[in-house]
Write a structure and sequence with these properties.
Number of helices: 16
Number of strands: 0
Helix content: 55-70%
Shape: globular
Order of helices and strands: HHHHHHHHHHHHHHHH
Oligomer: single chain
């Protein structure tokens, strides 16, 4: 039997695959970057008492992007929009590799090897590079990276860090609040409350100044987008031309409820997938880059939750939700595929409850006594 390649060889192959997709997506990439340049420039223009500084969201509610994201762009703005784009495309690509590294630490090394994760990376990286390089949606990049970091911190019992990272994720992109069920992974209600406080403070520090400085900022909370014909919302028969008023609260409630159930049933690794699936099944938008959140969730579930020997969830998500968007078919099919994603993710909760394992760090001393699967 052939032996598995050494870890350095596997890492080199993953890096080479990432570079290939970076180059492919960089050609004509950055299609959404102008929104980020516009917001960052307005945020630092504090002399503009109408559209700049803390009046940003009141003047431009279309910028549904968190202030942390705009602040992250500011240091590169003096180099020009193009240089800033290239810089963040590179950093966004690195963020995808960092997510894979964080996922690698979610379970002990004796349960999954690096070669297994490389298989998941083969399907994950094309979708991630489309998000980080092709459309350059930095807000989603930061929200997903910080949320995965929060999951790893929660598994390590890092109370304040868990809450802080989740709060920063919300500061980058508001929908990240759907990952808050991760707080329940901390042992004991005191730790959970402390983490919730850290999350709340991080969100308040970033967002509250805008609401205090300009009450018109509340208009951003009610901003709606077109109900796209490829959306799951449209497929479910909800044909409102714009986002229904109940939609965003329902997304959040569904994500939190399913996340709590996942923790109680020992399916903690499904929290990110369930949160993203809850968002997309009620999402009026139809952007391809949304699928990056799905593959982040499937990689985590495949690696740390599923008991299969192949990353079937990530492969299925890549083919049915991402690759399929370039195949001519009726728009409703894409919507029903998203509904199928939600139902499939929900089925994870139907199995027998599992005990929530100790964190990988507490198990490291046991690795030599546990047989390799």
């Amino acid at each position: 039997m052939l032996s598995a390649p050494p870890p350095r060889t596997i890492a080199g192959l993953v890096l080479a695959w990432a570079i290939v997709w970076f180059v492919l997506m960089a050609l004509g990439g950055g299609s959404s970057w102008h929104f980020f340049v516009q917001g960052a420039a307005a945020l630092v223009d504090v002399d503009d008492a109408v559209t700049g500084g803390l009046h940003l969201y009141a003047a431009a509610p279309v910028l549904q992007i968190g202030p942390l994201t705009f602040l992250a762009i500011v240091p590169l703005l003096p180099a020009g929009p193009l240089a800033a784009l290239i810089g963040w495309q590179v950093l966004g690509a690195v963020a995808g590799l960092l997510i894979l590294w964080l996922v690698r630490g979610l379970v002990p090394s004796w349960q999954r090897d690096a070669g297994w994760l490389a298989l998941g990376a083969a399907y994950f990286l094309p979708v991630w590079m489309f998000l980080a390089v092709g459309v350059a949606h930095l807000d989603d990049v930061l929200a997903l990276l910080l949320s995965v970091g929060a999951l790893r911190a929660a598994r390590a019992g890092r109370t304040w860090l868990t809450g802080l990272l989740l709060g920063l994720a919300v500061d980058a992109k508001p929908w990240a609040v759907g990952f808050a069920a991760m707080l329940l992974l901390l042992r004991g209600w005191r730790r959970q409350v402390c983490a919730a406080v850290a999350l709340t403070v991080a969100v308040a520090v970033a967002w509250l100044p805008f609401f205090v400085a300009d009450p018109g900022t509340s208009a951003a909370l009610h901003y709606t987008i077109k109900n796209n014909s490829v959306s799951a919302l449209h497929a479910l028969g909800i044909h409102n031309p714009r986002t229904p008023p109940w939609d965003r609260p329902a997304q959040l409630a569904l994500a939190l409820i399913l996340g709590v159930i996942a923790v109680r049933r020992g399916r903690w690794a499904a929290i990110p997938l369930l949160a993203v699936a809850s968002r997309l099944v009620l999402e009026p938008g139809g952007n391809k880059y949304y699928i990056a959140g799905v593959v982040v969730g499937t990689v985590i579930w495949d690696f740390a939750g599923s008991r299969h020997d192949m990353p079937w969830w990530t492969l299925a998500a890549c083919l049915s939700l991402f690759t399929a968007r370039w195949i001519p078919m009726p728009d409703a099919v894409h919507g029903w595929l998203l509904v199928g994603l939600f139902l499939a993710a929900g089925s994870i909760l139907l199995g027998a409850p599992r005990p929530v394992p100790e964190s990988p760090w507490s198990l490291q001393t046991q690795s030599s006594t546990v047989p390799v699967r």
